[in-house]
Amino acid sequence: MKLIFTIYLKEFLETIRDRKTLFFMLALPTFVMPLIFYGTFKFMENVTTEERQRVLKIALVGERNWPKIRDIYRDNSEFKLIDQVNPSAVARMIRNGELDAALLVPDDFQELLDEGFQASVDIQSTGASSIDMVYGRVSQPLVEYGRELRDQRLKELGVSASLQRESLLEPILAKESRLASTRERLGEHLGAFLPYIFIIFTFLGAMYPAADLGAGEKERTTLETLLISPVERWQLVVGKYLVVASAAVISAGLSIVSTALSALYMVRNLEGREGQDLLNFISSIALMDFLKIGLLILPLACIFAALLLSVSIYAKSYKEAQAYGVPISYLVIFPVLLSILPGVKLTLATSMVPLLNVSLASKEIIKGTLDPLHYMMIFASTLLIAVFGILFCSKWFQREEVLFRT
């Protein structure tokens, strides 16, 4: 045991001296997620603010059919009226950016209003962008005027009290009562994203040290020296294996901590009920929940370590080992992405699927709805695969045709 620890310590110290390995093990999980969160948050905040404050260029087409529409928009500083627009050129001008929107008033608009019927204005805009606020901003003055007109009509009918108006307009009111807590609702969405992050970083944290400790040794021609040393091969494998697993765990742990801190920073800068709900959601996730996720990461990191170290030992060069890592990463990403899909839940069947089970279990932990039986089954099955992985890696290392493949 002491010899294994000596090998582990030696290999670990050599591993962290490598800049590329250090970057993927420490720097990437520590700084990438805060940069992604902060960058995305600031970008969306700036774009949204700019879109909300932008003066919109609008055209009133068919204004003669309802002259009142000019009064509604004329004194509003949010809009700039573009006059004398040819109706046939409206679509082209909107697509070219000369107009943000056009309000088309039909010929019978005033007549319908006078007779007490419902009349409609067609608001044309591109609507292509997901952050497009044009329709909402342009329609708001019309909606407000429509409410005034509605109240006036109800008053003429003798309905003046607020309660009377509500009971007349909505005689039956459907109320929604959600039994799921805020943590369950938000965890259903955010809980699918977080496991994806730490599983990917667990894999990345293991990939580069594994490539260096196997194929890298071949390139440096130091593998032969290790093999003739008075150390059993299985002890050598276990020492290298523990280094790769440690790198994976460190990378995963840093990614979880940095993601949690980044999310907390972002939420504290949100205003209103949405921001408060998110803050309550993050606060409801206890330290024990993170420890449960961490406990699932340990055997998962061991699986990645055994798999990648076996591939690295087989590869002829460091570059070849990295090339093998790319298709393996696709196999890792695919089941994790399945857990994000709607309707994919943690059941007895899915708890037996590697990677998918860990991702779904982590999601349930974040939601606070994890079944202890499922958790124990997932941990046991993942640990069993990890044990088989290290046994295979040890046997693989014993084969001369693998170590000295030409």
UniProtKB/TrEMBL annotation:
It comes from the Bacteria. One of its GO terms (molecular function) is ABC-type transporter activity. It is found in: Membrane. It is a multi-pass membrane protein. Residues 20-391 form the ABC-2 type transporter transmembrane domain. Keywords: Membrane, Transmembrane, Transmembrane helix. The chain crosses the membrane at residues 21-41, 193-211, 241-265, 285-309, 330-353, 373-397. The keyword Transmembrane helix applies. One of its GO terms (cellular component) is membrane. InterPro entries: ABC2_TM. The keyword Cell division does not apply. This is ABC transporter permease. It comes from Sulfidibacter corallicola. The lineage of its organism: Bacteria, Pseudomonadati, Acidobacteriota, Holophagae, Acanthopleuribacterales.
